[in-house]
Amino acid sequence: MKKKNVLITGASRGLGKALAQVFADNDYNLILHSKDRDLPCVNKSFKWTDKHESDRDVYCETVKGDITRMETVYRLLQVAREMGGVDVLINNAGIHVWGSFEQVDSLEYAEMIQVNLLAPMLLTKHLWGCLKEKKGLVLFINSIAGKVGADKEFMYCASKHGLKGFSDSIQFDATRAGVKVMSIYLGALKTDMSKHREDYDKLMEPVDAANLIYDMSRNYGSMRVTEVDVCRRNY
Question: In total, how many domains does the chain have?
Answer without folding.
Answer: 1
